[in-house]
Structure formats: structure tokens, C-alpha cells
Amino acid sequence: xxxxxxxxxxxxxxxxxxxxxxxxxADLFFLEKLKVDDNQLKSLPSRLKELCNLxxxxxxxxxxxxxxxxxxxxxxxxxxxxxxxxxxxxxAKIGMMHSLKKLFIHNNEF
Length: 110
Known about the structure:
Elements: E1 10-12, E2 33-35, E3 56-58, E4 79-81, E5 102-104
């Protein structure tokens, strides 16, 4: 991640057949919105929790089976969209995310 991209606030990677996100996505300190709907993600980077300014994370229509436990450390996250995945359970502390205003989880494997 170069210096220019470190200032990004929005990344929209929807509908690209992406199978993995690199751990380096966590180096995008100012990132507020990450949209990776309609891809082929099976997991998320463990460093995702380092995106301390992330407010919106959209992951609909992927192949996710779980979420990294550190997702609950995203203290500014307001919107988390997980529709149409294969998630079997959510992290136990997700209910303690005080900033979370929208959580969409329909059509998973709960």
C-alpha cells in the first residue's frame, strides 16, 4: 500500500470474483467504507480489526463461513452487511458493539 492509497476513505470492490483480501488492507488507516459484495471470499484478514476508522463493511453474497473475532474491535463500525453467505455463528461480543446500528444477516446458515 503506497502513501497515496493510505488516504483512501472508500474502497468498492464489488462483483470482482475476489477470493481473498490481503492483510495489508489494514494499512488503510483512514478507510471508512469497504464494500466487497458479490465476490468469492471465504474468510477475512485477521488484521481487519486494525481498520479503526471503518464505519461501513459490506460483505453480501460471498462464501464466508465465519468472521474474525477481532471484528468486534471495530469501534466505529455502524453498518455490517452479511446477507447471503454461509456464516454459522457471529462472534459472541457482537452485541457489545455500541456503534453498530445496522446488522443484516439474512440467508446464512445459522
